[in-house]
Amino acid sequence: TGQRLAQRLILATSLLLPLLLLVFALIGQWAGQQLPREIRIAGGEASGVYHAIGQRLAEQLQEHSKREAVVQATNGSLENSSLLVDRKCELALLQASSVESDEIAVVAPLYYEAVHLLVPKDTEAENLEALTSNGAKLRVWLGLPQSGNREAAEMLLATCGLRNEQYEVVAGGWEALEQVEQIDLAFIVIRAGHSRVWELIEAKGYRLLPIDKATEIALDEPTYRSFDIPTDTYPGIGNVPVRTLATTAFLACRADAPDRLVRETLQVLYDGQAGFPEIISKEKAKHWRGLAYHRAAKKYFEEIVAN
How many whole angstroms separate alpha carbon 176 and alpha carbon 220? Predict the structure, then answer.
């Protein structure tokens, strides 16, 4: 009798085990697609553009999703990328060069960021190549450590053949740019026409320096494109646009982020009452090719194309 009961128990267990595993898998999948209790957004420097957009997104996402949403001040793209991978935030603003991990997916392209090269207005050099070839050790502002700004600046300096020992980095955030006499070159990667750059040119005595080799650099670095800053963007440009480079700012999440989080974020970005008029429209975003979109974002834009 004991053996028969044991056999029946083993048979019942073998029949029920696959069903139990399926149930647990479905529960796990359901739980993984729920919104987190708190939606953390990695922005950027507390007084910067990324942080300001992150703050607006947090406010509107909290109202729309009925979940607490907060924006975190960071040093920028590189730190934001690490925070995403380490699961210390759910959404992050990143430059294109930081969206290079299989663990990170794009929610939406936000806007183009132009590389602004600022020098004191009495600088004799007329382009970046001339400035970096005069042999003098340059005092260069690159932005905060772990920022996309610094990554872009170091890439451009290396492309122009400038070795680390040929320049010294000016420490500090935006406040360091107030001391024009302490800086030979400043790299600022930000949306063209931004008021901060306007103020540095108009009130602090800087001028823009072109990158004559922008097209060649863009061909070697796919995250960048050649870009002309229009003549009416800043004072003192003259009649010829300033040739430079541009990259793209993206809103990103983890590749395994809940579909619902991505859908609600896209609804806030494009369909919310307040809206984000300064970002790339969904009509343009739907035609963007080659992006590592999150599956829910890919479906969202495919449905727009189909309609």
Answer: 31
How far is 250 from 149, CA to CA, in rounded Å? Answer: 14
**Interatomic CA distance for residues 95 and 81, integer angstroms:** 10
Alpha-carbon span 18 to 160, nearest angstrom: 61
Rounded CA gap, 106 and 252, in Å?
4
Residue (of 132, 27, 69) closest to 264 by Cα position:
69
d(CA 304, CA 251): 19
Residue 107 has which token pair? 């929610």
Tokens of 92: 């992050």
Question: Given a cut of 50, is residue 45 above it in pLDDT?
Answer: yes
Overall residue count recorded for the chain in this entry: 307
Closest CA to 184 of 246, 114, 130: 130
Cβ-contact 112, 227 below 8 angstroms: yes
pLDDT band at 23 (very low <50, low <70, confident <90, very high): low
Contact call for residues 51 and 45 (beta carbons, < 8 A): yes
Structure-token pair, residue 59: 């406010």
Q: Is the pLDDT of residue 20 over 70?
A: no
**pLDDT above 60: residue 27:** no
* Two tokens, residue 133: 């070839």
Where do runs of H (alpha helix) occur along the chain?
2-32, 49-65, 77-85, 128-132, 148-159, 195-202, 214-220, 259-271, 282-285, 295-306
Tell me how many degrees the CA angle 208-210-216 measures, rounded to the nearest 5.
155
Separation between Cα atoms, residue 184 and residue 180, nearest integer Å: 8
